[in-house]
Write a structure and sequence with these properties.
The chain has 284 residues and is mostly helical. Among the domains are: 1-46; 96-165, no CATH class. Helix content is 61%, strand content 0%. The chain is built from 13 helices and no strands.
Length: 284
């Protein structure tokens, strides 16, 4: 998986057509090798990196990384880059998600100035845009210094901006807005599933409960010990036991898949339910 990721990063940075073709062939080879080695593979349907990704993510998110709230708000998610499969190289540009987020910020910053938070957010946005366009290393360093004057905006504030942007009819089908809609719908499914007494002790619902407790804690030092204890509980919960029939990540994926199958049978029109099975997973 890490070889595949490194190649995906390289091809995104490469402009030379010959070099891109060479890297594309390497990506294809890594993908097919992993696929042929995956146990229980079903031709054309199994992502060979799924198991490794799920285990990596569970380990990472159990440390409660402050900068990964969106990533760690979902129980599992597919390992996905613009180059997951050979055909994806031409069908899914690597900057799609960034592009729709940029549009959201351009919309927000074009609104009549309100000063304060908006001013700070938009100055940061402008600097980031310059950094993406600037080729000179010295200029990028100068811009990086300017960026320090405008720290990252609160998570809730940015989500509010995206939510307002996605209410526009012209934005509804953008990747950013589809992602927000699916996340909201997956939260609804999680609430439905864990609201049933028979599911309270399932791995998914116990993990959801711990995750919600961690997310509700303040970021000050007073809550650090409690956060540490909860994170340790989550890590222990997701730790693979030698000799066990299945790993916790596999069990979790199976629970979510079964819940999705039942839930989506009565909610077929939801954007979340229209996603391929295993393409993304709900909150918790």
């Amino acid at each position: 998986m890490c070889k595949h990721h490194e190649l995906a990063v390289n091809i995104a940075k490469t402009q030379d057509a010959t070099e891109r073709k060479k890297i594309s062939e390497q990506i294809k080879q890594v993908f097919m090798t992993a696929k042929s080695a995956a146990t229980g593979a079903v031709a054309g349907s199994l992502n060979p990196f799924a198991k490794d990704y799920a285990e990596m993510k569970m380990a990472y998110c159990s440390t409660n990384p402050a900068s990964a709230k969106i990533l760690c708000s979902t129980a599992a998610s597919r390992y996905s880059t613009a180059t997951n499969a050979p055909s994806a190289l031409n069908s899914m540009p690597s900057n799609v998600a960034t592009s729709s987020t940029t549009k959201a910020m351009e919309w927000y910053c074009s609104k009549p100035g309100q000063g304060g938070m908006q001013d700070s957010i938009c100055k940061r946005t402008a600097i980031l845009k310059k950094m993406r366009e600037e080729a000179s290393l010295d200029e990028r360093k100068k811009l990086a210094e300017q960026l320090k004057q405008y720290p990252t905006s609160p998570y809730g504030t940015m989500q509010g901006i995206y939510a307002d942007f996605c209410k526009l009819k012209t934005s509804a089908e953008l990747p950013l807005c589809l992602s927000l809609r699916r996340t909201t719908e997956s939260k609804q499914m999680n609430k439905w599933y864990c609201g049933q007494p028979a599911n309270k002790l399932s791995l998914w619902c116990k993990r959801t409960d711990l995750l919600e407790k961690i997310q509700k804690l303040s970021t000050d030092a007073a809550a650090s010990e409690e956060r540490k204890q909860l994170s340790m509980q989550m890590a222990a919960m997701m730790k693979t036991v030698p000799g066990a029939a299945e790993s916790p990540s596999k069990k979790l994926s199976n629970e979510i898949a079964a819940a999705k199958s039942t839930y989506c049978a009565s909610h077929p029109d939801l954007a979340y339910c229209k996603m391929p099975s295993g393409a993304a997973s709900p909150v918790g």
